[in-house]
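1st attempt posting a full record on here, be nice pls
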Amino acid sequence: MRKIAVFTGTRAEYGLLYWVIKGIHESTEVELQLYVGGMHLSPEFGYTINQIEKDGFPVTERMEFLLSSDSPVGISKSMGLALISSAEVLDRNKPDLIVLLGDRFESMAVAQAAMVGCIPIAHIHGGETTEGLIDEAVRHSITKMGHLHFTATEDYQKRIKQLGEQPERIFNFGAPGIDSIVNLELLKREELSDAIGFCLEKPYFMVTYHPVTLEVDGASDSLVNLLKVLDDYPDHQLIITYPNADTNGRKLIEILDEYHSLNPARILLTKSLGQLRYLSAIKSCDAVIGNSSSGLIEAPTFNVPTVNIGNRQKGRVSGDTVLHCYESIESIRDAICKAVSSDFTKSCNKSINPYGAGNSSKRIIDVLINYPLKGIINKKFYDLSL
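the predicted structure (as tokens):
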């Protein structure tokens, strides 16, 4: 029986992988090995491994490697520990194939260990560009270490071919995160209020702002600018989720903690909402604001406006519901003003999500189960016609 390993290190990544993990777990043709590490094992970020176990998935390995430091040195040391841990875990379990998603530094460490151990890598969400982050280099590095590639748009499929990967190993199935929107019974507004313990009696914004890892201090000044603009909307409540454990992430957390303390009745600041509550919150909000990929990939399925701030997602494909702005107060203010305008919200209702309409996870699983693995490790560079 083919042993398929899946690694997850963050709450967001797990949400995108959920239906892939579920499908492998429920298959009678393959064996699931689930490796959980990073932010999932950190109380500071919600100890979200509890949610994974609550979902009924058996955790094969717990990988402790995330240091409390978020300095460049601290992140580099966490990567080193992740590489050591990955080598041990892969040697112990000997999977036939490992599934990685996206562009996190933890995933690159796992990919390095798999590459050295001659374990084939299936990579989801490759070919994308995010010019403001180290994730850009990490993502393309995993692509070059990978053997099967699952992209979210045709543009990304073409880019992976441009990186020299064989076209027959690149599958454009759309974004798996949309599968949850299609498959889950999302909470109504009143049910969501009960689930999060926060009464949503007014219109509200969903806010997620992650560090911009190629900018000084992770662009903390930009977060301050955003919060100043949000003060212009006192009649809107705010649901704010914690940033990722990236370089300078704790500086952003300090800013958010202080902002929340000034008006806790208006603001819900949470370490993690979990997949069901997060998507339900997007469904009913007036706008998604910040620099998270979910504003570009998942939110458009709900026809909800997104205000995407700064360079963190620069280069990513985006639909008509997304407004891009600079990090200045004036630019953020203009974008939010347009997002909540009746003309723009009406136009959003006619938009189509460029990342697909769901059902990508099932198609990914079919390839993971059936693609021949004999000789897959030996890769030949695919040259484009010059």
